[in-house]
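pls ignore typos typing on phone
calcium ion + seq
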Amino acid sequence: MTATILIVEDEARLGEILEDYLKREGFRTERARDGLRALELWRAAQPDMVLLDLMLPELDGFEVARRIRSESDVPIIMLTARDEEIDKLLGLGLGADDYVVKPYSPREVVARIKAVLRRSSGQLLAPEVYEVGVLRVDLARYIVTCEGLEIDLTPAELRLLGALAKDAPKVKGRPELLAASGDADRFADERTVDAHVKNIRKKLGQCGEKLETIRGVGYRLRA
Ligand code: CA
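k done
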């Protein structure tokens, strides 16, 4: 993955957490803490995407987005704290590609980034395709197929299945699967994993038989 992401966030700690997380995911990053610096960096670094907080010193995020949009189609994901901001955002028609409401988990932001990059320029994402027999999990494009038929999974279900497929037929414990699903930062506990697995099995149809429960340990995908 070689995409460069410009992070515009005036809260230093939030910006750092996002930057660390994105770097670990293989992105290059630039970071600005006010609107004017954001525009400077946007011109200088030519990022593949802008993560843009709305409430910023100097120029606010609305104005930054407007100026970027007047010159470029670069994907923009807004980081917003309040519902009123979302209403204003949508009302202004600034051409943001997506928005994430605070408090967000970095994992959620990364999922949105990947989804938006996939729509705008899929070649920026490394392929992450895992095949277990007739089951195929494409983590970068969020597509699961069983014998070529597309299965409709939620993002959390897909990430969980992807974690199992990646290391099949290795057994994975519930804590690891919970983290992989991306639910770990919310109200989820390990029973959430069981609920996801139940849903996945049902949706997978005949491929669901591959998803085995290993009593007292966790789950695995049989090769
Ligand atoms: Ca802010």
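The chain has two domains: 4-121, 129-221. The pocket of calcium ion is lined by residues 10-11, 53, 55-56 (CB under 6 Å). more later
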